[in-house]
Give the backbone structure.
Amino acid sequence: MYALIIVSIFIISVIYAHSHGKEKLKFSRQLFDHSTFLGPVNMFMTGFSRLPNQPFYSVEDFPELKALQENWQVIRDEALQLQNQIKAAESNNDAGFNTFFKRGWKRFYLKWYQASHPSAQQLCPQTVALLEKIPSVKAAMFAELPSGSYLGKHRDPYAGSIRYHLGLSTPNDDRCFIEVDQERHSWRDGEATLFDETYVHWAENKAEQTRIILFCDIERPMKWRWAQSFNAWFGRNVMSAASSPNDDQDRTGGINRVFKYLYAVHAKGREIKAENPKKYYLYKWTLFTILFAIIFVPAFL
């Protein structure tokens, strides 16, 4: 019975994640995507959400965020002073955005589901002060998308938040855009947008100028106080484990402390694949079989 419950939850999670929105990932990719493994949590978040299931939301429905847009030039000026600090992770310690770095994307964390990063408090105090006055902002960073960069189609894993983008220094050009479930938004200086990052989305900058935005996770508003409390608890105790540092004084979450070792295994796998693809796939599926056995076989005993 226990095994049947686990398998059923996994199957339902795959179906839920794959069916979310018009745009789909390849099923073989969705099967092992992180959004699938958070499927049970995400079904709770969207099921008890006060928001409708749709790709974009109106910024006007979140009046607490107005202060960010009103002070966008202050925020922009601090971001522009950080050009040597907005960068890719240097130690394979940012699991959530690791694949983005390969395409030129860069970031500087302001906070991540807990207190603000000490480095951000020192280098951009005005922006941090604005964010700390808005409890619904659970995570924030400056995100840079250089000219020629492209971020492939993906789903973010966690439905307990929605994504806020505020244009700071952008090309103001339709060739620099994000597309969420086949709906496109082009960034503009001083303009904001809100969207559900669990829908398939991708971004591209074909303009000549680098795009810099304020990127925030806003806690999803829930129908009941107990559901809101669970959302806050999950973010504080689970999502915070994905915290990544800007420098040595910032905290590294548990997920990212482990990730650097997993990345080393992944890098070795790429070497094997380049040398002998048949051996690589043999090792890969043997590993999947072992993991499956570890998880599910005890349930049948």
User: Anything to note?
Assistant: The chain has twelve helices and ten strands. Residues 171 and 209 are 5 Å apart (CA to CA).
